[in-house]
Amino acid sequence: MATLEERQKGQSCLDELAAIVNRCLIRRTSALLSKYLPVKIEQVVCIRLTDIQQKMYSKFIASDAIRRTVQGERSGKVSLSALSAITTLKKLCSHPDLVFEKMEAGDDGFEGALSLLPEKYNTRKVIMPELSGKLAVLDCLLAVVKATTQDKVVLVSNYTQTLDLFERLSKHRGYQYVRLDGSMTIKKRAKVVEKFNDPLSSDFIFMLSSKAGGCGLNLIGANRLVMFDPDWNPANDDQAMARVWRDGQCKQCYIYRFLQEQ
User: Fold this and answer.
1) Are 228 and 258 in contact (CB under 8 A)?
2) Which of 10, 122, 176, 227 is a plausible cystine mate for 257, CB 3.0–4.6 Å?
3) Domains and CATH numbers, the chain
4) Neighbours of 39 (CB within 10 A)
5) Percent above pLDDT 90 for the chain
6) Helicase C-terminal domain location, by residue (predicted)?
7) Rounded distance, CA 255 to CA 225, Å?
8) 14 CB-near residues (< 8 Å, 6+ apart)
9) Which residues pair with 207 in a beta bridge?
10) What's the pTM value of the predicted model, to 2 decimals?
């Protein structure tokens, strides 16, 4: 542990270095821009699981696979890792469609889960927002924004599977949309962003993968942003939420953070 004299010397050296660096480095934080930007309203929306999600969730965490994972037992059958189990639960909280393949295959924790779904359920046909608390709220939010305002919306998720879900919902409701994920080239990305930011563009929704475009992207054409699922690193969420509230924005901004509650 450093002595008081050593800490004082270290602070003195740090101050000297900062004085030298500040002569040639300009550092601007979002706090500076906040004086000139419109008001930003951030809302945390706590959403309950639907009955179907709750039953699947309870069935999964009570399964033998989870018990083996928690207890660290070793057996002939490969058990889930804790991280994989948490990721699966995050997807289930978004919509049962995202774990449908696991249900079909009867994977660990999803044995017999298909029986909990509605009769004639098919993920390849019409999407059912009512099966998910989050998607039902998003569906309602988009409908209200579309019917009562001229605003555009950015939908952010950590998973491309969830972006697929947004696409299906948008097609079902007839919303114009664009999508940006890791598969899009830099050149095409710039064109898509420029078109979306055009006030005359008919695009209503911008679907964004937080890993592909959560930093450095200017989406001031929209003034509403939905964080559909939280990232492991809160800093990534903060970066993604700053896509609409940034230099050039003229409208009041609304940020909706969807969180699941039991």
Assistant:
1) yes
2) 227
3) 34-48+132-261 (3.40.50.300), 51-116 (1.20.120.850)
4) 10
5) 45
6) 137-262
7) 5
8) none
9) 155, 179
10) 0.82
